[in-house]
Amino acid sequence: MGDFPADRPRRLRTSPAMRRLVRETRTEPSQLVLPMFVAEGVDEPRPITSMPGVVQHSRASAREAVAEARDLGLGGVMLFGVPERKDATGSGALDPDGILNVALSDAREVVGDDLLVMADLCLDEFTDHGHCGVLDDAGRVDNDATLEIYAEMGVAQARAGAHVVGPSGMMDGQVGRIRAALDEASRTDVAILAYSAKYASAFYGPFREAVDSSLQGDRRTYQQDPGNAREALRETLLDVAEGADLVMVKPALGYLDLISLVREHVQLPVAAYNVSGEYSMVEAAAERGWIDRDRAIDETITSIRRAGADVVLTYWASEVARRL
Ligand code: PBG
Fold this sequence. Notes:
CATH superfamily: Aldolase class I
Distance between the termini: 43 Å
Largest sheet: 8 strands, parallel, barrel
Structural class: alpha/beta
Strand content: 15-25%
Helix content: 25-40%
Order of helices and strands: HEEEHEHEHEHEHHEHEHHEH
Shape: globular
CATH architecture: Alpha-Beta Barrel
Bound molecules: ligand PBG
Radius of gyration: 20 Å
Number of helices: 11
CATH topology: TIM Barrel
Low-confidence stretches: none
Oligomer: single chain
Number of domains: 1
């Protein structure tokens, strides 16, 4: 008898029923947010080669996908616009008839208040140089001039119907400036999901195709250096002080330590963005038969939740919700 271990954790793994009983991390459809791309001037959804299964939506197909997200009980949809024309200041982002704003109105018309409609608040899809802000005479991203445009963009998105705006440009002071503009426009009801710790990541690669990005160079003067952890907390606490309602870490998989760190230090809900490259790696390996696709997807979402994310933005949101 004494030769055998007394403590037998395996007893709790004996059957699916037992494992289900003791599982610590679960995911509900309401914790998943589906990022969606809506393109101007297209009649049919256009496949995105580097993200198999994801499309640039037409306005009509976007409405259908939003209705489906509601029927599946998702937490929300995060809309990105893909405009036909871009310019130096990203003026399409402010135009009430610009693609992102009309897509937000369409979405609200379909779901009302039954699904949260969220808007990416950033200029990179709208600028001809592809940066997240406007440039100064020396070609550098001008932080404070960009804040003024973000403020107007936030109000335009609120007017178009966004319940939540998601500033993703990593400009200093963006949350505070946008909050002030929303409040001044009497839109205290609109929440801010702050991309607080957003890293300059190679894992956004496929997203650049998804939004027809024209970026030359990189975003390292505003997005964070992958080697820095304390800085993520500093950035996040600034966003909390400026009035963020939810904070986000992005990407997710390489940054699970930061999700946990933020979870530990912040009382607000924590979101994590399972980004395009994380999606495409799984899809590509599964296509070759190298991994079990469904299990890899579920394990991905579970790991992000286990690290401490309350909310997960993922291109698999509808599919996972269907399986749950
Ligand atoms: C910026 C933005 C990006 C992503 C979301 N918002 C691109 C970037 O910062 O370069 C990437 C999302 C993904 O890769 O899935 N508007």
